[in-house]
Amino acid sequence: MSDHAVSRRAFLRAGGAVLTGTLASTSGVLALIAPSTSWALELEALDAHQAATVLQFTRHVFPHDRLDDAVYALVVKDLDAGAAEDPTTRRMLTDAVRRLDEASGGEWLSRSAAEQFVQVQAMEATPFFAKVHSTAVVSLYDNDMAFAHFGYPGRKGDPGYIHRGFNDLHWLPDPPDGASGPVPETA
C-alpha cells in the first residue's frame, strides 16, 4: 500500500468529497477512450458544491458546447490539488464560490447560463478568474481526452507526429491565392 492510499473509512471520516459525472454521449470520441461512462474525482480541499461551481465557471471561461464535463473535471482536479497544498489558494477558491453564491442570492449553479455568465464577467479582473484561466489553459487542453475531442493527432515528439495528421487541416478554409506560407497538401 502506498503512502497516498486512503481507506474508504478514513476518507469518509476526514469529510472528503467527490465530484462525479457521466459521459454525455456513449457514442462520442471520449467514450471510445474512456474506461467507463461514469467518472469520479476525489477531492482533497474543495467540497462537492465548490468543485461543481468551479467546473461550471471554467465552462464559461472556456466554452465548448460538446466537450464533456469529464475533461473540465481535470481543471478542477488541478485546482483542488493546489488548494490542498496552499491555504491561500484554498481560501481564494472557496471565497470566490461563496461570492458567486451570494451575488446570485442562493446557489450560483441554480441560475440560468446567462445569469451565471454575468457573474463570470464581473469576476474577470479577480485573482480567482486568473487562477482558473491559467490552470485551464494547460489542464483543459493538454490531455488525451481533449486531443480526441478536437481531433488532435498527438503530442509533438511522438514518433510519426509530422506524418500523422500535421497537414490534415480540412476544417480550415483554403488559403487565398498568393498567400504566403506553406500550402497544405490535399488528401
From TrEMBL:
InterPro entries with a match to the protein in the record: TAT_signal (IPR006311)
Protein name: Tat (Twin-arginine translocation) pathway signal sequence
